[in-house]
Amino acid sequence: MHRRLMLQNLFREVFDDESLVLAPETSRADIEGWDSVAQVQLVLAIEEAFGIQFTETEVSGISAFGEFLDAIQKRGSLAA
Amino acid sequence: MKPSLHHLGILVADIAQAAQTYQARYHHAVVTDVIHDPVQTAYVQFLKGAEGEPLIELVSPDGPESKLANALKKGAGLHHLCYNTDELEADCRRLRASGMVLLQSPVPAAAFPGRRIAWLMGRDRIPVELVESTASR
């Protein structure tokens, strides 16, 4: 499955909203409930699904869908 | 030595009022003054119960910009668990590898002079604080 779709599905799971459609620029301000706790859940879900580990800087710094996608693609993990 | 439960953190709006409640209801005793931790943007106060039991830490935001302000808006209550550790960095690495996220690397803590704390969280959404058992070199 394409990384972007996988990532979107993870967002949908974390926020329990199957209607979420994410664009690269979709940020914390755009999704209700994307607080620090949700950030941790996203990080853990993405790390498990993609077999990667974010740095401490990334954990607190990533604040948009596209930034997560870039971090995943930078690591060249799993599906293209 | 394995980590041991040091205290339960309870998020409250009013520490003085909460301390009175815990003393009246559960016969806890106040063991510290109210301490301001500017790094954690919090006021804290510790209470103890029976001998050998973990302490209770009452925690409140130190102002509207506090990291705890949003959490308090969502409701006061059980906020975190804190474990004593003899090996802070090693336990941070171990817990990170076990599926937790390191929210804050070891930093000095106003409530524990000379000792550092770190923060992690896992899928269960419970913040976990680690505190060094003894002062850092």
Which properties best describe this structure?
heterodimer, A: 80 residues, Non-ribosomal Peptide Synthetase Peptidyl Carrier Protein, Chain A, B: 137 residues, 2,3-Dihydroxybiphenyl 1,2-Dioxygenase, domain 1, nine-stranded mixed β-sheet, 3 helices
Task: Write the topology of this structure.
The complex is a heterodimer of chains A (80) and B (137).
Chain A lengths: L2 H12 L21 H15 L5 H6 L3 H10 L6
Chain B lengths: L3 E8 L3 H12 L2 E2 L4 E3 L4 E7 L6 E7 L7 H6 L2 E9 L2 H10 L3 E8 L7 E6 L6 E5 L5
Parallel strand pairs in B: 1-5, 6-9
Antiparallel strand pairs in B: 1-6, 2-4, 3-4, 4-5, 7-8, 8-9
Question: Could you explain the architecture of this structure?
Answer:
The complex is a heterodimer of chains A (80) and B (137). Chain A is mainly alpha-helical and 80 residues long. Chain A has a single domain, classed as Orthogonal Bundle (Non-ribosomal Peptide Synthetase Peptidyl Carrier Protein, Chain A). Chain A contains 4 helices and no strands. Chain A has helices at 3-14, 36-50, 56-61, 65-74. In chain A, helix 1 (3-14) crosses helix 2 and helix 1 packs across helix 4 (65-74). The longest helix of chain A is centred in the middle third of the chain and has 15 residues, at 36-50. The radius of gyration of chain A is 11 Å and the shape is globular. The termini of chain A are close together. Chain B is an alpha+beta fold. Chain B has one domain (4-132): Roll (2,3-Dihydroxybiphenyl 1,2-Dioxygenase, domain 1), CATH 3.10.180. Chain B is built from 3 helices and 9 strands; from the N terminus they run E-H-E-E-E-E-H-E-H-E-E-E. Chain B has helices spanning 15-26, 69-74, 88-97, and strands at 4-11, 29-30, 35-37, 42-48, 55-61, 77-85, 101-108, 116-121, 128-132. In chain B, strands 1, 2, 3, 4, 5, 6, 7, 8 and 9 form a 9-stranded mixed sheet that branches. The longest helix of chain B has 12 residues, at 15-26. The model of chain B has no long low-confidence stretch (mean pLDDT 95). Classes of the chains: A mainly alpha (80), B alpha+beta (137). Chains A and B meet through helix 2 and helix 3 of A and strand 7 of B.
